[in-house]
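Morning!

This is the sequence you dropped in the shared folder:
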Amino acid sequence: MANKKQITFENFSYLIIFGLALLVRLLMLGKAPLGEFEATWAYQAWELAQGQTSHVGLQASYLTLTEGLFSLFTSSNALARFWPAVIGSFIVCFPFFFRAKLGQKAALVMALGLALDPGLVAVSRLAGGPILALVFSLLAMGFYYLKKPVWAMIFGGLALFAGPALWMGALGLALTFGVSHLAGAFEWSTHIRAWFSTSPSGSAGKRSFPWGFALALGVVTMQGTLFLQHYQGLSAWLDALPAYAAGWVHPSGVHAVRLLAALLVYQPLALIFGLIAAGRAWVTGEKTARFLSIWFVSALALGLLYPGRQVYDLIWALVPLWALAAMELIRGLETVKSFLVTRIHAASIFVLFALTWLSFVTLVTTGVGDDKWWLRWVVMGATLLLIGLATSIVHAGWSWPVAKKGLVVGVCAAFGTYLLAAMVGAAYLRPANPQELWHPGSGGVQMELLQESLGEFGLLTTGRQDNLDFIIIGDSEVLRWGLRQYPNSHFREAMPAQTRPAFVLSPLTEIAQPWTTSYNGQDFVLETSSAWAGNIDFNWMKWLAFRDAPLDQEKVVLWVRHDAFPGVETSDTPPASSEEGVIEE
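The structure's back. Tokens below.
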């Protein structure tokens, strides 16, 4: 009988972790409305599905995949985010590919960290975000390491069509390999000889390689053009490089401090153990950890130095950081077998961290104006000192390995709980909210209310909710996406000079225009964005505890001409011209 492959406990664990990653990314995916950034890409995909345009933007992978969904199903916020969420879940495969280098247990811990990381989960739920570039690149690296060049070429080609974010990661990896070679953590000659010595080199391998290359080229071409419907998608990767280069000239306005704040606030568990592992590697000479530390520093440095930076550029640094943290966690957990004193020590550390956090929240709630606010700082400091004291007592009474394991388990439990809370807040409690650092903005805050108002006026005047004829002054991707089901909506740069349409949507800045005297208006919040001036210069303690931070609101006003209301006689307002595509009265 032929030997059948059996699912091992390790493989089953990866399946469970992948299912968990998929669940947390898909749960309540359509709850938050699309912001300007997301709506830009979602609306392009919808236009492609409707046949209204043949232009394929920079992110051909996202656009063609999402167009396929919109062609089969009704477009929605959830479907606009579907492929980033699903593909983002495959990030847990990366440690599986490199488990021989990382160690089996460390690879499992890394996979779990990548599955639940707040930043990676939040960015995976972002339509048009950089997660496709990251995951496709990691899969290409993994298959290359496993000596599977065809699969490596397929995912490498898909990464090329994932937009400008690819070049941020590619530049970081190029810098990593160069510095690692100089530091002795990676040797090109040794690597190349090892790769070719174990790769298919026989006659069968040589004959199959051209066919494999043709297959990879065909898959990438079909995906990039959505089965040969949009040939413009093939040039998207060429346009992505100039778009990334433009970011070195045109600043985004996102201060570098925000990237550091996101790293400290959302990834304390990975940061603590990752930095310990990096320091240990440079003392002991461990090449794998040295390479990972160089990768982390390179990706972080590029994100901080890049003028067109966004907080989500940090995802390239999170992968090596979690690899380092996982290696250090396993090293700390395997010192000795667990017994009663280790568990008591770990539980006491968890309780002390919880008390410290509760004291901090109480301080934020009561405010520094309280007469005894300074006493709470003393209590928090004393609580943290107790952690060191408890560890010293266990060290003196038993041994350092026993004390170390209890300390590692306690810190891991405390910051692991914090990580889950941060992930839930970023993904579910405050999805697509600029008060969470990972999101560029929140859009369509009152879009449903605006749609209801337009639907009521549509029923009143035409008998159908989606048949209302109105104009929209200005250009907003949020409105284009939110009102895409209104075929009689027309975008204009300004109010037509000789017409007064019955229904108008305009920015709040138009409220002082003379034509508004003939209308009644109601404002709606269209989008919220961060009001932080450059860096984090507000009450950071309140933000850390409750994510409470100042926001700017962009509003739109729905104007209804006076005589469009029931029971109001028609005024002498000049009628709207049919050439303008608005209601004629």
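Headline: The chain has a mean pLDDT of 85.

More detail when I'm at my desk.
O.
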